[in-house]
Amino acid sequence: MNVASRPVAAGKTRTCPHCKATILESLSICPGCLHHLRFDQEAAKRQVAATSALRVEGVIRHPPLQEPWEYFVVIAIRNDRGEEVTRQVVSVGALQSTEKRTFALSVEVLPPQGQVSPNTPAAAAGSLSAGRKR
Description:
The chain has about 130 residues and is mainly β. The chain contains two helices and six strands, in the order ββαββββα. It has one domain (about 15-115). The protein has helices at about 40-50, 120-125, and strands spanning about 15, 20-25, 50-60, 70-80, 85-95, 100-110.
């Protein structure tokens, strides 16, 4: 039986019932907690075809014999006019002497609904991030 995906407006969101994150309504797997949300073959194919358009990773090492450091992680997104669209504190914490933390940020892009071929805009965006780690 072939169940067609119901059309969803691009960018429409919903709340993941597992982790309560705001996610795209078109996703069948939550990118935050990785729980399956529904069985939808077309949505699953589209999500598998997602391309990492940006990936940044860095490590912070606390020097030995110093007082603890506090840290906070902020994500800010700007539109093409430079206006801040959203800003969120994602995490906070502390580093004790000799501890380290690795931080990774990735932005995944999805092909338009109904397209999962390698000639999608997502595949073209992926060529910008050649040499990225997965």
